[in-house]
Each structure stands twice: as structure tokens, then as C-alpha cells.
């Protein structure tokens, strides 16, 4: 028989903990004493026939939380879906997750199979694993510690944990960039071109993990991206394509949990990268996928050998799960376009679609290369690049992009940051390289992607000749403090622009 002391009324805490369910109790709560709950204890909460496992945070100050009451974070409240504020919930210690032994085995160099991969992902999505468990799993899989069989098992488990979309036709085209190259915002242009050509491209994208902007962050500056599957189908049926945030669609939900852990750790693994990409493509119903893989000394993929290894892993897993895949290796030695950060990248995208005289030519060329290759995957006549260019130059791609935005909820022009400062060259010479990682760090310190108009605007490119005090880049921020923080970092070390004296 359930004891009365195991129940507490629950209320909304109104605290955003991203996707981590958190419960708040006062330190003098009778339940904390009776059950031995302490800070960071994993707690099982049951109400209205639904249950949830959350992490306990103990409140030491009186005031906002009434005595003998539990408050749920936004993620916990949305997962439990109580009938109302103040409903009684039962609290208990959860059973140890079944997958912890599989994670421990992996930490010590073992392998996991399909069954243990499924159990890990099931426990992950059910929030049975603590952040320490998740960090251990991510770390144990880092680098090349997942073999092909484990990567396939993880991909399938991640796909099976969420919803899947069947479009009822082929080909369903898609593309993905492995990342590491600031400003490489080809997706909106590619989607517009493919949809204008009559192709089907229901594009889902992620938000930033370790970059100054993810594709969804940039598109959200111009149009809503938080679509559910019903809305996504409506947009795709009307326009042939969409530009949606994948995190709102319950497609491979474990990926969003792993992203939350990978973001502060600032690393991932080849196997998890492949599983992340392909599980979402499979869940989204994609049949033909092109992978853009920038290769450069400061990109995510740094060498040709690393690109070959990652390409082989992607191809092997794609073949096993029934996706036709092509890898497009591209130049990753410098950022693409001029803008780094959501609004600045959106402005570059619009300049290309609108055929503006000052559009960034490198972004235009990359987008057309990818769109052309995708068109050739769907209709292999070898004229994809030519078709893509015609659709862009005729204005058909711009019109299609605006139609997609209208179907998703309307179009908004990107804004510009109120605080800006220019950084200049310190010597005469030729710009030979731009450090992708360092320029991205400056943009993030300025506030990107959380501050939509923050970031970096590039004013010089590799190959340019500069004089002392020639503007190299402009930092954009929404507050004076963030601008100062970014400038301090930019000036504290080596410049992201490598300038060599001309002979």
C-alpha cells in the first residue's frame, strides 16, 4: 500500500532546463528526509497514469517554492503532462537503468550489439539515464571508438525511438553538411532550387551544437521552423519542400539528448555523427542523400584521409539501412560567405537568392554544386548543375523560397546588431588563411547563436592584399558587454586572419 508521505502536489517551476527534466524541492521537505533524496538524486514521478524520471535540485532559500511542494521544470512538466497545477504526484526511487551495464562495458573497451544499443537509446529517451551516464556514453564512443556494426546498431536504435515519415513516393531528396565551416549556409538555397525543379525535399535541420549558427537557427530568422509533422506535410504537399527544425518533430529524439551533452563537451565521435545524420534522414523518409563534407586544417574534417574514413563509414551504414548516399567533398580551408551568425548568414542567403550584385560568390557556387549533384541523383542526366543555375538566375528559386516561408508562417527580413566593431590588419601582406575555429569562437562570444543578430561579418577573404589598418572583419553584438567580451578574446591571441608578407 502506498504511503502518504510519498505524495506531493506539483506546480510549474517556469525554469527552462532545455531537454533535461528537473524537479525542485525545498531542503526542509518531508519527502526529501523520508526518502533520502538529495541534490542530483534521480527521482521517479508518477501522476495521471504517466511517469517520468527527473533530476532533483534542492532549493535552500525560502520564497518562491511553498513548503512540501515539488516544482517541475518546463521539460519535466511537458513530459509528464499533469492535469493541472497542484495535482498530487507520487515520488519514489527509480530502478537502476538496464543499460548502465552496457555503457560501463563500452567505457572499458567492450562492444555493444543491437539489443544493448536499443536498450541504451530506450533508457536515454525515457530519461532514465543521468547526465553523468550520458557523458560517459558520449566519451566512451568519442573519436573512432565505434565500429561499423555498432554504428549501424546505434543508427537503427535511434531511428526506432521516434516517429518515421513515409512520403509514399521516391526519390525523396535530402542533404546534410558535416559542419565545422562557419557561414556554409547552402541549405535554404538548395531546398529552394530542388523544390523549384519539381523535386521533393522535406528538409529537417538542427540547431547549433558547437557552431555560431545551425541551419535551423539561420532559417528561423526568416520564417518559423518549429513545425510538427502535420504542418510539415502540409508545407511539403503545397510547395515540394520545407525548412523545419528536426528537434520539434520527434524524429530520432535521442539525437537531441546527445546534442545537449555534446555541446558543453565540445566533441562528438565519427560513429555518433554518422548515426545522428542517418537516423534523422531515415526517420524523415529520405531516400537519396548528399553529404557535404568540407575538408580543411581547421574544419571538422581536417585531412583527406579523415574524409575517406568518414565517407566509407557513411556509405556502409547508408547501404545497410537502404539510403542511396553520395559524399561531396568541398573546400574547408575558410568560412563561406561573409556572415557568421544567424542573421548575418540569412542576409547572405537572401543576397544569393535575390541575385544581388554584392552576393557572396563562394556561397552561390557551393549551393549550386550541391543542388546540381542532388538533381543528378534524382534524375541522372548530368545536367543538374545547369538546371540549378537556370532556376536560380531566373528567380524561380527565390520565388519558391518565399512560397515555402509563406507556407511555414510568413517571411521576416533579418535584422542587424546595434553594437559593431571592426578589427583591422596589423601588417601589409596577403591573406592566406582564416582560422575557422577561432573566427567561430569570436562569433559565439559575441552572442551567436542565442542572440540572432550577433556574429562576425568578414570584410576580407583569402587571396586579398591588405595594408596596415585594412578592415578584416566586423564583430556584431546586441549588448556592449558581449561586444567587449568578443573583442577581448579576438585581441588576446593570434588573429584568425593569417597575413603573409608578399615577396
TrEMBL record:
Keywords attached to this entry: Glycosyltransferase, Transferase
EC nos: 2.4.2.4
Domain Pyrimidine nucleoside phosphorylase C-terminal: 430-495
InterPro entries registered for this protein in UniProt: Glycosyl_Trfase_fam3 (IPR000312), Glycosyl_Trfase_fam3_N_dom (IPR017459), Glycosyl_Trfase_fam3_N_dom_sf (IPR036320), Nuc_phospho_transferase (IPR035902), PYNP-like_C_sf (IPR036566), PYNP_C (IPR013102), Pyrmidine_PPase_CS (IPR017872), Thym_Pase_Put (IPR028579)
Catalysed transformations (reactions): thymidine + phosphate = 2-deoxy-alpha-D-ribose 1-phosphate + thymine
Family label: Belongs to the thymidine/pyrimidine-nucleoside phosphorylase family. Type 2 subfamily.
PANTHER family (alphabetical): THYMIDINE PHOSPHORYLASE
NCBIfam families assigned: ARCH_P_rylase (TIGR02645), PRK04350.1 (NF003338)
Name assigned to this protein: Putative thymidine phosphorylase
Organism encoding this protein: Thalassovita aquimarina
Top-level taxonomy: Bacteria, Pseudomonadati, Pseudomonadota, Alphaproteobacteria, Rhodobacterales
